[in-house]
Amino acid sequence: MGKTKYYPVNEKISADEMRIIDDTGENQGVMSRDDALALAKRKELDLVVVAENAKPPVARMLEFRHFLRQQKDQERKAQRKSKQDIKQLRFGPNIADHDLNVRIKRAERFIDDGDKVKFTVQFRGRMITHKDVGRDKLHQIIEALGEKIDVEKDIWMEGSQMMLIIRPK
């Protein structure tokens, strides 16, 4: 996980004036640091600068521990979303239509979960002479998933395998 951001709190705030947002999220206007600290102390909350670069800086009244926990949770969620797995689905060029539809449904679930999907058509023996059949199956998959996907890597051959990688839009 990345380095946590530093937030000036209570007496560590260096700005003389700041825009105050209270615990309900309402703008209390611009006030001096001392007035803001007194108001926060009356409400038994911490005063935290959340936008230091704004003119004047923006400070919120909140429970600092709770705020830090929320920030860490948001960071974890963002990290979880950015991680993508590549799921692989394999089949032969002579796969039955129903079996291919089952693979397409499974790929659709992977795409909905935000994962990339790699389709591999495995050619065995003399089947390699019918590459066009494998290519047709992969094009059928692209058509079936249509609007939900982007083709990350178009159809290519590697040894006796024909592959395709798709990702969610």
TrEMBL record:
InterPro entries (alphabetical): T_IF-3_C_sf, T_IF-3_N_sf, Translation_initiation_fac_3, Translation_initiation_fac_3_C, Translation_initiation_fac_3_N
One GO MF term attached to the UniProt entry: ribosome binding
Start and end residues of each Translation initiation factor 3 C-terminal domain: 85-169
GO annotation (BP), single: ribosome disassembly
GO cellular component, one term: cytoplasm
Domain Translation initiation factor 3 N-terminal: 9-78
Keyword terms, alphabetized: Initiation factor, Protein biosynthesis
Similarity field: Belongs to the IF-3 family.
Protein name (Swiss-Prot/TrEMBL): Translation initiation factor IF-3
Gene that specifies this protein: infC
